């Protein structure tokens, strides 16, 4: 049946309307673009129309008042941060951000997809954060380099006579 469209595995997702809002969604091990759920649209409206800060708009829209923020350190010092909100239907909405902007925003509607997404995308981002933090700490702890060449002394061994 070559004329039939391939059905994406995973949850049944609504396609975005032409010119409408889209949300990157992770389902059954792949990324697809889908129409956003109503809670996402409510967060966008609150942030854009009412000037609600985005983390608060997401918390209000999802009902997840305590979004997980990783790493647990001063966000101003972090190279990357991972925000994760539990969604009303039991999925997750995740944003990986750096000091300049959101680098990855993904909706994972099916809780069964969370472990794979965590292992393939969140853990590597956190590893990168850890390496950057370690590099900063090592640079801070390392004394300034004062390497001077030592003058060569003539050897008094019998071989050099």
What can you tell me about this protein's structure?
It is a single chain. With 161 residues, the chain is an alpha+beta fold. It is 30% helix and 21% strand. The protein has helices at residues 38-49, 54-62, 114-141, and strands at 23-27, 30-34, 68-70, 80-86, 92-98, 102-108. A 4-stranded antiparallel β-sheet has the order 3-4-5-6, sandwiched between helices. It has a two-stranded antiparallel sheet with strand order 1-2. The longest helix has 28 residues, at 114-141. The chain is elongated, with a radius of gyration of 25 Å. The protein starts with 22 loop residues before the first strand and ends in a 20-residue tail after the last helix. The model is unreliable at 1-7 (pLDDT under 50).
Give the arrangement of secondary structure elements.
Blueprint: E1 23-27, E2 30-34, H1 38-49, H2 54-62, E3 68-70, E4 80-86, E5 92-98, E6 102-108, H3 114-141
Antiparallel strand pairs: 1-2, 3-4, 4-5, 5-6
């Amino acid at each position: 049946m070559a004329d039939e469209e391939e059905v994406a595995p995973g949850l049944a997702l609504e396609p975005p309307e032409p010119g409408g809002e889209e949300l990157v969604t992770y389902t059954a091990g792949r990324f697809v673009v889908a129409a956003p759920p109503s809670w996402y649209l409510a967060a966008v409206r609150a942030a854009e129309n009412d000037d609600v800060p985005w983390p608060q708009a997401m918390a209000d829209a999802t009902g997840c008042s305590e979004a997980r923020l990783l790493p647990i350190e001063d966000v101003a010092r972090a190279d990357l941060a991972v925000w994760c909100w539990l969604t009303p239907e039991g999925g997750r909405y995740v944003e990986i951000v750096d000091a300049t902007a959101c680098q990855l925003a993904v909706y994972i509607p099916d809780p069964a997809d969370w472990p794979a997404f965590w292992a393939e995308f969140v853990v590597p981002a956190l590893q990168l954060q850890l390496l950057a933090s370690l590099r900063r700490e090592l640079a801070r702890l390392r004394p300034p380099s004062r390497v001077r060449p030592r003058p060569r002394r003539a050897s008094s061994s019998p071989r050099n006579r």
